[in-house]
Amino acid sequence: MKLERQVIEDFGRQWTKYTTNEGYYGSLELFKDIISPLISIEEIKNTDVAEIGSGTGRIVKMLLDAGVNHVTAIEPSDAFSVMEKNLSNFGPNVIERVSIIKCTGDEIPKNIKVDYIFSIGVLHHIPNPRPVMKAAYNALKPGGKIIIWLYGKEGNELYLLMVDTIRCLSKYLPHVILSVVVWLLYWPLAIYIHISKVMPVPMRKYMVDVIGKMSPVKRRLVIYDQLNPIYAKYYTHDEALKLLSDANFTNIKIHHRHGYSWTVTGNKSV
Question: What does pTM read for this prediction?
Answer without folding.
Answer: 0.94
